[in-house]
């Protein structure tokens, strides 16, 4: 019987991102965490921006997390799945990333979040680093 994954937490985003190899954390303009591999961001906690806001109040979301994705088809699969909390905005239409509000991270299981973070890292790591990581972590059937 497969183990059921618990619900994800914000702390898991930090732990999973820093658990990937060759990761550095830098602080953004508002001391928001930005996780990078080889100087390229793959997960970052975004500052409130005018493109992500509550449609009822107009208040900017203060808890948006950005995850890079490998391709536009991966992005579309995540944002179009009504069971997942991912979204995008017009600002990110041509950007290979998805957004999620921190307040909704618990709608993901830890396993789902782990896959998103790993895919984000793989999409930004060098070919060699990605190949080495994949060789050490073969997909399970």
Question: How would you describe what is shown here?
Answer:
By secondary structure, the chain is an alpha+beta fold. It has one domain. Helix content is 31%, strand content 18%. The protein contains four helices and five strands, in the order αββββαβαα. Strands 1-2-3-4-5 form a five-stranded antiparallel sheet. Strand 1 (23-27) and strand 2 (33-37) form a beta hairpin. Helix 1 (10-19) crosses helix 3 (110-124). It is globular and about 50 Å long. The model has no long low-confidence stretch (mean pLDDT 93).
Top keywords for this entry?
alpha+beta; 141 residues; globular; single chain; five-stranded antiparallel β-sheet
Number of H- or I-type helical stretches: 4
Overall shape: it is globular
Taking Cα atoms only, what radius of gyration do you get, to the nearest Å? 15 Å
Number of separate strands: 5
Summarize the main sheet: 5 strands, antiparallel
- Percent of residues in β-strands: 15-25%
**Count of domain modules:** 1
Helix content: 25-40%
SSE succession: HEEEEHEHH
Distance between the termini: 14 Å
Mean pLDDT, rounded to whole units? 93
Write the layout of secondary structure elements.
Layout lengths: L9 H10 L3 E5 L5 E5 L2 E6 L18 E5 L3 H9 L16 E5 L8 H15 L2 H10 L5
Antiparallel strand pairs: 1-2, 2-3, 3-4, 4-5
In short:
The protein has 4 helices and 5 strands; from the N terminus they run H-E-E-E-E-H-E-H-H. With 141 residues, the protein is an alpha+beta fold. It has a 5-stranded antiparallel β-sheet with strand order 1-2-3-4-5.
């Amino acid at each position: 019987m497969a183990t059921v994954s618990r619900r994800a937490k914000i702390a898991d985003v930090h732990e999973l991102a820093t658990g990937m190899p060759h990761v550095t954390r830098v602080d953004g303009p508002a001391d928001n965490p930005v996780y990078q591999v080889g100087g390229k961001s793959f997960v970052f906690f975004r500052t409130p921006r005018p493109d992500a806001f509550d449609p009822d109040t107009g208040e900017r979301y203060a808890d948006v997390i950005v995850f890079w994705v490998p391709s536009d088809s991966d992005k579309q699969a995540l944002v179009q799945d009504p069971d997942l909390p991912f979204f995008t905005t017009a600002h990110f239409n041509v950007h290979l990333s998805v957004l999620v509000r921190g307040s909704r991270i618990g709608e993901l299981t830890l396993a789902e979040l782990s896959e998103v973070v790993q895919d984000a890292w793989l999409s930004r790591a060098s070919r060699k680093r990605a190949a080495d990581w994949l060789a050490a972590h073969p997909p399970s059937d």
